[in-house]
Amino acid sequence: MPTIENFAIENLDRLQIGAPMSEMSFQDQTEAAAHSACKFFGLNDLPINEGDATYVSLNNINEIGDESLTYNKSQFEKMGWDSFVDMTKVWTHELGHVISQKEFAGKAWPSELCADFMVGVRSAMRGFEYGKFEYAIGATPASASHPNGELRLEAMKAGRDFATEMMKNGTEITWNSCIDEFKKTYTEALIQYGYKNGKLADAWY
Length: 205
Description:
Blueprint: H1 6-10, H2 12-16, H3 26-41, E1 48-50, E2 55-57, E3 68-71, H4 73-79, H5 84-99, H6 101-104, H7 108-126, H8 132-138, H9 149-168, H10 175-194, E4 195-196, E5 199-200
Helix pairs in contact: 3-5, 5-7, 7-9, 7-10, 8-9, 9-10
């Protein structure tokens, strides 16, 4: 059963063709963007609430659809994510965690890079241009939980390139094909950036 407010869903088509977002409250804007991302992945709408950060809560990693979304208005404002495209890229990233959780839940950097890869895939499929989302992500430093911005932008570009090639060849793009391509593309990168003292760094587990 959908859990995003009907007002946001009813206004989704208007937003996607460039209607002024100022006509909607921030809550309605981000809920419409989240609904759009869920629709792209073929997922039922997930519960969405305001909190102290923006993230997805994963529950049973063997089950898709029991997750929930949390957003933080101040974080969106700080990052400059004020357009529909930027907002829906945020939720595409978070839902990338959902569809790849069986592969990467608990593996910090691979999980983040795969989610970024999915942003690139959707951007190519929907014709989204580079914007404030990429600018903000590209400026982020590396941490135990997130790769540096350069790696993240590379993952988005890899997703764009993959989707573009698949569409050019008329090949269906599926979750599994995206995850398989990500794993193939990043096998060497995972080793190169994560290898320390004879074993993969903790960030890759």
